Amino acid sequence: MRTPVCERLGCELPIFAFSHCRDVIVEVTKAGGFGVLGASTVSPEQLERELKWIDEHVGGKPYGVDVIIPTTYEAAAEKADEDPSRLIPQEATDFVEAILEREGVPPLPPDEEERVHKEIVTGRGAMTPEGARRLVETTLRHRQVRLVVSALGAPPPDIVEQLRAKDIMIGALCGKASHVRRHKEAGVELIVAQGTEAGGHTGEISTMVLVPQVVAEAGPGIAVLAAGGITGGSQIAASLALGAQGVWCGTVWLGTIESELDPFEKETIFKARAEDAVRRKVRTGKTVRMLRSKLSEAWDQPGAPAILPTPLQGILYNRAHARVVRARRGDLYSFPVGQSVGAVNAETTVKDVMYRMQLEYIDAMERLSALSGGSSA
Ligand SMILES: Cc1cc2nc3c(=O)[nH]c(=O)nc-3n(C[C@H](O)[C@H](O)[C@H](O)COP(=O)(O)O)c2cc1C
Question: What mean pLDDT do residues 237-255 have?
């Protein structure tokens, strides 16, 4: 399974794990894969603490950081220090409040309300260009970070220059082959071809269609990873067959012991089927694949207010989400998950997932080899 991107980054397996949870990053990386910490919802100070912890626990191995560098945002909320929640129209707040009240979801206790608000607003602040720059500066202080990925679009030239100066590989997500040219021009060396099946912000093209198109557009100098719907070794074999140099997974880690989710959240995810992972704009203002719930569908009702621009919709939605989690209401719970949520049915460890993926990969390669009359992989 070792491909050129493993040589470039210094990992044994081309299994990339996207996660917001530092424990997942460490376990995947220690098991030979490559963990990439999602940094879009933390402040620079919190990111500093997370990266320090990872540095201390990852046994000297390299890992990555993923930052959302937005291209569109509410202009008035441009400064990361300002609280953009003041721009949320009262009508939108009243709409959400009425739903939660009708459903009997209590408000958060005042101290928790304050903590959650701070967390959400700091996180959304990081989704401004200025906030993203501060996260990159924090990242640059950690020498074991060997890959920085831009989640929404190609990274701007000043950030590319800073990363190049430290020989950090530059990655970007991509949901359409037509985005590849812009990524190449920006100096991206690794493209995550993310199909519509994926959890989180996602486009409309499926992984099976997207990956070979992106590989063809990218050409030989750029590593392509397949993302969206991948939880098992046969899909890794398929991705390599499509021309990818590895896989990038997100949903599969949510069900692990190491994941950041609490037991109620995991149980809700274990019950979900592939068709329960729907694309909606309600969570951030941009299309996110997430669990369908009464809350995710509320904006489709007659009389519902318009979806707000990023980052306002995210603040509005995440405040409600915090109340739903506290009230343990599975019928209102929506977290970003991909269609592969249907294959995440019970708690396991990261190490077990990594081991299973490798065994399944060997099985898949043997099946293919038998088909062509050759010996085992
Ligand atoms: C809970 C969750 C949060 C995500 N947040 C981000 C993010 O902040 N930045 C990003 O680049 N991708 C994000 N993604 C997308 C992942 O990077 C990845 O492309 C996707 O999970 C792959 O598809 P899969 O979910 O089917 O494994 C997120 C995915 C999930 C499941």
Answer: 98
Ligand 1 atom with the shortest distance to the CA of 36: 17
Pair of tokens at residue 182: 């812009």
CB hemisphere CA count around 242 (13 angstroms): 23
Contacts of 324 (CB under 8 A, 6+ apart): 100, 105, 295, 332, 333
Distance (Å, whole) CA 294 – CA 298: 6
40 lines ligand 1 (CB under 6 A): yes
pLDDT tens profile 40-91: 888 899 999 999 999 999 999 999 999 987 654 444 344 555 678 889 999 9
How many angstroms from the chain centroid is the CA of residue 362?
27
Structure tokens at 96: 């959400």
pTM of the model: 0.95
User: 174 CA distance to ligand 1 centroid (A)?
Assistant: 12
From CA 14, how far away is CA 244, in angstroms rounded? Answer: 10
Regarding the beta carbon of 17 and ligand 1, being less than 6 Å apart is answered no
Distance in Å, CA 201 to ligand 1 centroid: 7
* Ligand 1 in reach of 200 Cβ (< 6 A): yes
